[in-house]
Design brief:
Blueprint lengths: L20 H22 L3 E10 L1 H17 L14 E9 L3 H15 L6 E11 L2 E8 L3 H14 L3 E2 L18 H8 L1 H4 L8 E8 H9 L5 E3 L1 E9 L5 E8 L4
Antiparallel strand pairs: 1-2, 1-8, 2-5, 3-4, 3-7, 4-6, 8-9
Length: about 250
């Protein structure tokens, strides 16, 4: 060192400390698990669907006439309209909302293979599902071998996208889900056990009435009639299992 010449102190370079190994492990896990958590959250959404045949004008008129009769007797029921579509249910299920496009494709393939618009269907009687003191009524369609086969094929085609059950939010509701019955959730969850195979009861829902009035209707003679399907749709179910929101109209080849 030369005397009389000021010198600057030598600054030591900062040392970069390596992150602890545990930190690196945790960071790696966070990065790895992050997308999985996001995917799981994304797939939590569930939709309650109804794959249904669209009836022709003959059945629509009979259903609307019966609906008007029920509303006159029980005004608290619902009217068949654009958000309560008359239909013949083939399958009701809870499916992952993210998989709806796959559900549409699977259903379309089965329906185009079977060509149900070429079938002649027959309405044979009234029936109702009791929920005392009222009941949900419908016009029963004769369960032919064709309808059974179609239902079986749809169940198999949609099965990869189904979940066991769903919340009220899975349904279409204008009342925050408060109009979604617990019995409806249980019915959709158990549909393939209680409404398929030997329990399949194809029908067109016509409305709600008191059990006393519905028993009177069922005791009356029923004039059978034939009708056809004009197409098919996938709906989001609403209160009482009605087809409240059309999710996909399925065009069927002749």
């Amino acid at each position: 060192m030369m005397h009389g010449v000021p010198t600057s102190p030598v600054k030591s370079r900062p040392r970069h400390r390596r992150p602890p190994a545990l930190f690196l492990v945790c960071l790696g896990l966070a990065l790895a698990l992050g997308p999985i958590h996001s995917a799981a959250a994304k797939s939590d959404s569930v939709t309650a669907i109804d794959i249904a045949l669209e009836p022709d004008a003959t059945m629509l008129q009979h259903a609307k006439d019966a609906n008007a009769r029920l509303l006159k007797s029980f005004p608290k029921g619902f009217a068949l309209d654009e958000t309560h579509h008359p239909h013949v249910t083939l399958l009701q299920q809870f499916v992952r909302t993210d998989d709806l496009d796959e559900v549409y494709a699977a259903a379309t393939a089965v329906l185009n293979k079977e060509k149900p618009t070429t079938w002649t269907l027959k309405a044979i009687k009234y029936y109702y599902i009791p929920s005392p003191p009222v009941g949900l009524a419908g016009i029963v369609v004769e369960p032919t071998d064709d309808l059974h086969r179609l239902q079986d094929e749809l169940i198999a085609a949609v099965k990869p996208y189904t979940v066991k059950t769903g919340p009220p939010a899975a349904f279409f509701s204008e009342d925050g889900g408060r109009d979604i019955q617990k019995s409806l959730i249980e019915y959709v969850a158990g549909f393939t056990k209680v409404a398929a195979g030997e329990h399949f009861n194809p029908h067109v829902t016509i409305g709600v009435g008191t059990e006393a009035y519905l028993n009177k209707m069922l005791a009356e003679p029923f004039d059978s009639f034939t009708f056809s399907a004009t197409g098919a749709s996938v709906y989001q179910l609403g209160t009482f299992g009605t087809a409240r929101k059309e999710l996909k109209a399925i065009s069927l080849t002749p």
